[in-house]
Amino acid sequence: MNKQTNQAPTGGQKAVRILAAVLLNLAIVLSAVFIEYHILDHFNPRLHFIEQSDLPVIPWLSVLIPVLFLLSVLLYDLLFVSGAFKGKRFRKGRFWLIALCDLILFAALSLVIVTHSCNLLMRLGCETIEEKDVIAALATPVPTDSPAPVDTVEPVVPVQTDAPATAAAGTPDSATDAPTDTPAPSEIPGLLGSKYAEKFSEERTEQSFDRSNVVETLADGTEKSLLYTYSSDTVAVDICHYQNGKLEYQIADIYVRDINCFKTAYRLNPGQNMKTRGYAEEINAIVATNGDNFNAGKISDGLVIRNASQLVPAGGKPQTRYCTDLCVLFFDGTMRVYDYLTDKISYDEIIANYPYQAFYFGPKLLNDDGTAKTKFDSTIAKANPRTVLGYFEPGHYSLLVVLGTRVQMDYNNHEIGDGKSPGLTLKELSALCEKLGYKMAYNLDGGGSSSMVWNESLFGHNDRKHGDILAVVDP
User: Fold this and answer.
1) Cis amide bond preceding 363, omega within 30
2) Integer CA distances (angstroms), 211 to 84, 216, 243, 472, in order
């Protein structure tokens, strides 16, 4: 009986095996590209932590990728074709060597795709943005040769629902003996009318206070310190600092009689991004915080409106697909926060009701009844520095900034803290918003962007440039 012997593979067999190895590696590469691009396409609006200015420059990756690819093919050739490493110890480890090589290839390729794709998406999403006047678009009649849209919503002029009715002619005001040419408190126009009249003043006044002056200790032990007040006939702002143990946060309590006092400033090109201070000085803001950093993602992934101008890609269509929560501030002063998973978001309905600002970041922090949410569809749920837009009623808003585990910078960009504050998780942030009495609350960009600027003072980390701010100005 003849003993069977192993024969060396023929040239044809070697070619087939090498081709198989190449095809297998190509499949891995193409699969990686497919997976990464689809992940980016779906989640890119939430990749707020990737900024063009912060991305590392790694030119050697473009060389590393083909080298790793050739190394992987070579390993297949050595292990399966030439019969190298035939010893028992290598025979058992052949699979793991191949797997390790492919994992390195996949990881390097993924890094290249993520960084370069985000850069590309930011450039495509921001350099070709058009600003469309929302109100003008509503007023534009439909051409007669175009078919009328189905279920067209007739634009309705915003109604100041919270403005009190004007006193009857000739009826004296019982609370004041003001001359007839001065409006009585009940006749004050605007979002709040005569509400919170004590907050406003005929002349612009502002005052700063020492942070060490604790004006109140809350039931849970939180120390509240008044830092700054501003008032005029249309705007009133109180800024307070809160500290409970290591946790620190600041709140700007905002009252406006004119919605145009609530402005945003932004950049269409990420290369021109600034920190909060730069934007605030540019528009002479009374108080400002970072915004939703809209140009870190694709504009086509959500509704973005700034000062009544809708930002859309050049030639883009109205966005009806949403993959993160949406916040809309309307001209009548009302604010609505939409959960993209559970709320019906109607583009036509939003536009028909005169949106003034629309932010696309999130998540939504409170339920519609004002109670705290406990579950969030978000990748940023862990403890972080935070920025929040809060809403009480038309004309009464709040900006909240929570210090977190990062170095705090002063107004001149010098370090003034070592990040002792632990920050808040989304669940803790939601509970705080309920405690503060917000009717609605919306999470904005956080981390290194979180910052509040007022009267040449700064609270927050301020270590990252971003795309926009929310600000209160006095016309």
Assistant:
1) yes
2) 73, 12, 11, 22
Q: What's the token pair of residue 346?
A: 């109607």
Q: d(Cα 418, Cα 102) in Å, to the nearest integer?
A: 41
Report residue 50 as tokens.
């990737």
Query: Which amino acid is present at 234?
Result: T
135-191 per-position pLDDT tens digit? 666 654 433 333 333 222 223 233 333 333 333 333 223 333 333 344 444 467 789
For the chain, the straight-line distance linking the first and the last C-alpha, in angstroms and rounded, comes to 104
pLDDT, average across residues 199-215: 91
Q: Of 238-242, 428-432, 453-457, where does mean pLDDT reach its minimum?
A: 453-457
Question: What's phi and psi for 437, nearest 5 deg?
Answer: 90, 15
For strands 396-402 and 386-393, give the pairing: antiparallel
Contact 200, 231 (CB under 8 A): yes
Tell me the pLDDT tens digit for each residue of 351-361.
999 999 999 98
Q: Which of 192, 165, 209, 186 lies closest to 262, judged by CA?
A: 192
The Cα–Cα gap between 260 and 462 comes to 26
Instruction: Please state, in angstroms and rounded to a whole number, the distance separating the CA atoms of residues 306 and 141.
Output: 23
Give the C-alpha separation, 29 to 328, whole Å: 42
Is the pLDDT score of 408 beyond 80? no
* β-sheet bridge partners, residue 270: none
- Identify the pLDDT of residue 176: 30
